[in-house]
Amino acid sequence: MVRYRISSAIASALVVTTLAGGAAFAATPIFASEASSETSEATAQAGTVEAQSIGLEGVSNARQLGGYETVDGRHVKDGVLLRTGALSEATEADITKLVDEYNLGTIVDFRTSSEIASAPDPVIDGVENVWCSVMEETPADSTEADGEVTASTTADSATPDGDDTGAQLAGAAATAGGSDMIAMLVGYAESADLSDMYVTMAGNVHYQQGYREFFDVLLNNEDGKAVLWHCTGGKDRAGFAAVLVLSALGVDAQTALDDFALTNEFNADQIAYMTSAAEEAGYSEEQAQAVATLTGVDRAYMEKALDFIDEEYGSMDEYLHNQIGLTDEEIAQLQEMYLEE
Fold first, then answer.
1. Cβ neighbours of 51 (radius 10 Å)
2. Residue 260: its pLDDT value, please?
3. What pTM did the predictor assign?
């Protein structure tokens, strides 16, 4: 049931993370997706909430990449490549479903060490947990405030103007609630240009190395069990990973962008709620829209990253080969493992 009220869950659910070279809010949605599980796989169209949802109760933005068509007419295997938000609130029913229905074998966590410490993934019998560090950290990056671990960043991975505003907001937003949280989101949106955040991720060596480790997990998945990857909100770090995976499998860019933008449908209740809360607090329409953007995703931001990849590296294919380090043989192996006719 959707809860249309501000509760204590908001304080721990809406977490700020700082991306290398540019800061962004990775908001874990307040409400679990209510995508219908009644639509049959035979009738659900790929690229819709009904087709992609894996129907978890306590995990936000929980979906799969199955059904997407490649440029050569093959399709991504159903129920094998899963992407979600943080798993720390997964219910027993969720875990049972992941193991029994999806045959989950591996969980890949893109979060920072401090995010993991404050909300660890569940330990599931027979499931391997792998940490792929994409955001650069130093020992000083984890601090304790009010008994809670918060995230910080290195000097070269702070906000665009070089200060640690994003890092300070990380701790503040984790403990704030109600109007204070809305004020932080509005203030942050007005203080930073977020349109380059995926461009920064694409060009950052540490991100590239972390995503290479992620591809190694996919390549070493010899038993063919499902692989689930996530960050906090399941939309930025996990979203960029999904774009890379779909690209490597031969899915066209527009379809990969459609999947990225699908977060806004999975998070529709949260976006509407946060927008309404901002309006009721007296913020302008533009400010309320900024809050909505931070709760969801902006397709144009990812389009900008793909344009950057084409301009800087030649093409997505060249990027996957030269920056991520995938060989022709590995790409062929990925397609053999995760595609079907």
1. 21
2. 98
3. 0.81
